[in-house]
Write a structure and sequence with these properties.
Blueprint lengths: L3 H15 L3 H15 L3 H26 L17 E3 L4 E3 H16 L5 H12 L1
Antiparallel strand pairs: 1-2
Helix pairs in contact: 1-2, 1-3
Bound molecules: zinc ion (ZN).
Length: 126
């Protein structure tokens, strides 16, 4: 008897083999996740398991082909303008741009302390 996590991984693999359109895979997966009864912890473990497997696979692919892929979006050299390699991970220029935007948005958020909440409250009244 396989664990719920193994069953979910097997479902994801079956769906990905059957369906080619990423959007349809995502829809099928979303509905399976909703009906699975898995806890958020089990879902996180499921995706962590898949992430580990994918990362191992991509690592062996990169070693075999000499191609470096972004650790975030998995695009390879040639598909992006630049890939910056670190000791255990790599990131492409597109993911850096997204990350910089996320940092800027976070920095622009009002502070969550009392002063920030008061400022928000006053803004809402003007
Ligand atoms: Zn990337």
């Amino acid at each position: 008897m396989s664990s719920p996590i193994e069953q979910m991984v097997a479902y994801i693999v079956r769906t990905a083999e059957k369906e080619r359109e990423p959007r349809l895979i995502a829809e099928a997966l979303e509905s399976e996740l909703k009906g699975s009864g898995l806890s958020p912890r089990d879902l996180a473990l499921t995706f962590s398991t898949l992430e580990t497997a994918l990362s191992h696979y991509l690592g062996s692919y990169e070693r075999a082909t000499g191609l470096v892929a972004c650790s975030f979006c998995h695009k390879t050299q040639g598909a992006v303008a630049l890939i910056i390699q670190g000791p255990t991970a790599a990131i492409c220029d597109e993911c850096v741009t997204i990350a910089v935007d996320m940092v800027k948005e976070k920095q622009a958020e009002p502070k969550q302390g009392t002063l920030g909440r008061l400022t928000e409250w006053f803004r809402g009244r003007t």
